[in-house]
């Protein structure tokens, strides 16, 4: 019988990237400089559509890389808000995704982490690898859903991380600030830490996170 | 070779229910009477979460009936907005879903439609059948995704309608006000009419609707 899942002493940590380590709303300033007064609503709608399109395309069985989905979400969001988007603005905003800010608790927490740790992200390699590189963070593996052509929270995505890390799923702790992502990982069989920086309610998807933390620091405690 | 898809003379019309025939925001008044000043934001968040949960549960392979998803979405939305939800309020609001208002253009348009027509809905039979009954609308078939245990826009859902109606997909016109639903149907192979009552942009999912209409009346023209 495999050992019981233990969120407190896992063999490996697997981190979500966008929204967990990297702040997707750090694009807001550039949005604001393009369209004064519209930075915050644009950044919010861009992110919301980006997520919706990952779910809808996965269900339609019409996967497109996250870079394509992110561009399409930006085009939609600008049109919905009545903002004209030039090619140069599109490229400028997309380039922001290659250098998103890390949250303040990330760099120190990860540098002190002695356990094997990896990223599991919706990001296609063309977006994800430059971002990780520019941030200076180090991982034992950077895993993209791109090779499966389906997005989170499909169970095969979480299974990919267990396979790549050659680690039993019960021995993996998954860390995400996106509650639906944490619960998708829980449904698959990981132990999960939900990083609830914004004091949001738990999503109602039939599962609960093993632990709810305010910041990444707490996973080391 | 099968005949070309013709959105203008289909053998059957298939209609989405929630948001297309039935106004999901007709619950707003009851939300407002429970929590004055919060009716509109509650109704909006309730609907947004209801949809998110259908996509996320489908991808997680953790289907639950639409009645369960709708209750869970309401519970989340109330907690997120800081509203206490009693059992009586939950039951009262859920009962509103059994008698949603039809949009003003629905009854007359459907009564004049001589072509075979059906509903294809995410709604589980416990919600959908009482709603159709109470509205007095008549259909040749009322089809729920519930027997497949997956929600729109999975292609097998649209295929279910073609099978039930014993009609080639190229001869079916699908009608939805939810653009992502219309595009899911297009991706599967139906001709699609997107009823764009709110003048929204087309969703960016790699497909376009065959026709964009302002109201249901126009499908008869």
Structural features:
homodimer; 221 residues; Rossmann fold; DNA polymerase, domain 1; 2 domains; 8 helices; 6 strands
Task: Give your account of this protein's structure.
2 copies of one chain form a homodimer. Chain A is an alpha/beta fold and 221 residues long. Chain A folds into 2 domains: 12-23 and 100-218, 3-Layer(aba) Sandwich (Rossmann fold), CATH 3.40.50.1000; 24-96, Putative phosphatase, domain 2 (DNA polymerase, domain 1). The first copy, chain A, contains 8 helices and 6 strands. The first copy, chain A, has a 6-stranded parallel β-sheet with strand order 3-2-1-4-5-6, with helices on both faces. In chain A, strand 4, helix 8 (179-188) and strand 5 (191-195) form a beta-alpha-beta unit. In chain A, helix 7 crosses helix 8. Chain A starts with 11 loop residues before the first strand and ends in an 8-residue tail after the last strand.
